[in-house]
Design a protein that fits this description.
Layout lengths: L16 H11 L11 H19 L4 E2 L2 E2 L1 E4 L4 E4 L2 E3 L4 H22 L2 H6 L1 H17 L2 H9 L4 H26 L5 H9 L5 H21 L1 H7 L1 H5 L10 E4 L1 H4 L23 H4 L20 H13 L6 E4 L1 H4 L9 H23 L3 E7 L6 E2 L5 E11 L5 E8 L4 E4 L4 E3 L4 E10 L8 E10 L6 E9 L4
Helix pairs in contact: 3-16, 5-7, 5-9, 7-9
Bound molecules: iron/sulfur cluster (2 copies).
The site of one iron/sulfur cluster (SF4) has 15 residues, from helix 13 and helix 14.
């Protein structure tokens, strides 16, 4: 194996596992990946672009006069499109996280590392950084040569362009991330004029540096050494899970041969070209079997398919397949464990939808004026003063009518029609005026009710007392 292939992880069956692991780590030098095109790379492009566009453009989308997706921490409100989550809705946010986790479990059990290979931000951003690297420093061989060359103006120019490109994408990523917490139309001008809040600037810097290092330098090490998901997802696999696999029966014994020549019947289809290793972003050899470092990106499938095509052999020597399919056995159906994930997911979705649809869109709390229990009013009447805290949790501005239950003869002063914009909380002072002789006790239990003008079924209630002097 030449020096360019030193990063290749040779797994020798005769070497004890612990030595092999040490060997892997010692050899884990810089990986120079070869660019490859093919069916799965087009698929990655088609899935990656919408996600990237969504990430970068979503903060620019406005709805009802505010940023459509905004995690407003100072106001303790999370806006996701037309739904606003309040601190009281923490259970709904917990549901969303659990739903995401079970979706990931079910998808992994059925289709392997689909998340890692196609949608994980680490994979997507590393692919962008690799593209920039190739644009400015050239192909795999050109990059290896460039790194071995002594410093020259030409090398400095290429490296500067590459790092500028990386820096630009990293900064864009950092600003966009923070704009999910601070409105982008406010954040961007403030950052450009250096008048942004210190916390916002620090987080932009932190996420810019993290993106730069993760996608530019750490790359596969994030997947192999830092990501906990990579470690435990194999427990979700079963014999029907789709994984990227090398067909050993068909490929071995490997050996080089010329194109379109009659193959030695004792020789396998693998021509040992190592293209599958050179394209692998984690630097592994898929022919050594399923390894936790494999992120399921299918680059090796495209690489091997292109070789098989050139050799006039059928594609699929490296393919997405299951252990059962490879052994020529029928699929044993969806196992109980996966059915469990799907069932848990369905239950969580049902709970989430019910909680979301049945949560009250208006919230009311009442506090009495602590200064005086009651106030004298004209004609022998008395007043009690209250402060209503009314929150409009609906997506639209609404007007609320205040009703009171528990007293027969009284009048409400103020609070006839309280208008509150969507997502806002309003504190309204209100007086109840009554004849003390009409009240059954010195502390009459009453019930305040706020009724929505947009939808009469949207109501909120809060209890309080009306106090009168002892007669
Ligand atoms: S072995 Fe293949 S699928 Fe796995 S990470 Fe490497 S290139 Fe991607
Ligand atoms: S690309 Fe295919 S033929 Fe070449 S070494 Fe890998 S498995 Fe063998």
């Amino acid at each position: 194996m030449n020096s360019q292939h030193d990063h290749v992880i040779a797994v020798d069956a005769a070497v004890p596992a612990e030595v092999s692991e040490l060997d892997k780590r010692q050899r884990r030098e810089k990986i120079y990946t070869r660019a490859i095109e093919g069916y799965f790379q087009r698929l990655r492009l088609y899935t990656g672009w919408p996600l990237l566009l969504g990430y970068f453009l979503l903060p620019w989308l406005n709805l009802d006069g505010r940023q459509a997706v905004l995690f407003d921490l100072p106001e303790r409100k999370f806006h996701i499109l037309s739904v606003t989550f309040w601190p009281q809705d923490l259970v709904l946010l917990a549901f969303i996280l659990i739903i995401a986790a079970f979706t990931l479990f079910a998808v992994t059990a059925l289709w392997g590392r689909l998340w890692c290979g196609y949608t994980c931000p680490q994979t997507v951003w590393t692919a962008i950084f690799m593209y920039i690297e190739q644009r400015f420093e050239g192909s795999r061989n050109q990059r290896i040569k460039l790194d071995q060359e002594p410093l020259s103006w030409q090398k400095l120019r290429k490296k500067t362009l590459k790092h500028s490109g990386w820096g630009f994408v990293a900064a864009l990523t950092g600003v966009t991330f923070v704009s999910y917490f601070v409105p982008i139309r406010q954040l961007l001008p403030e950052l450009l004029s250096l008048s942004a809040d210190l916390t916002a600037m620090s987080f932009v810097l932190l996420f810019t540096v993290a993106t730069y290092l993760n996608a530019g330098y750490l790359r596969e090490k994030v997947c192999t050494d830092m990501c906990p998901y990579a470690r435990f997802q194999s427990v979700m696999f079963d014999k029907n899970t789709l994984v990227v696999t090398y067909d050993t029966k068909r490929g071995e014994p490997r050996g080089s041969r010329k194109r379109f020549t009659t193959k030695d019947p004792h020789q396998g289809d693998c021509i040992d070209c190592e293209l599958c290793v050179q394209v692998c972003p984690t630097g592994i050899d898929i022919r050594a079997g399923l390894q936790y470092e494999c992120i399921g990106c299918a680059l090796c499938i495209d690489a091997c398919d292109s070789i098989m095509e050139k050799m006039g052999s059928p594609k699929g020597l490296v393919s997405y397949t299951s252990e059962n399919a490879l052994a020529g056995q029928k699929s044993t159906g969806i196992p109980l464990k996966t059915l469990g994930y799907i069932a848990a997911l369905a239950v969580m979705l049902a709970l989430f939808s019910t909680t979301l649809l049945t949560r009250s869109l208006v919230e009311l709390s009442v506090s009495r004026d602590r200064g005086q229990l009651f106030l004298p009013a004209p004609n022998g009447l008395i007043d009690n003063v209250y402060e209503l805290h009314l929150t409009n949790r609906s997506a639209l501005t609404d007007r609320y009518r205040i009703e009171v239950e528990g007293m027969t003869e009284f009048s409400i002063l103020g609070g006839d029609a309280i208008m509150i914009p969507s997502g806002e909380l309003l504190e309204v002072g209100i007086r109840l005026r009554a004849d003390p002789n009409s009240l059954p006790s010195s502390g009459t239990q009453i019930l305040f009710r706020a009724v929505s003008n947009n939808d009469e079924s949207v109501i909120a209630e809060a209890e309080s007392r009306f106090i009168r002097p002892t007669l």
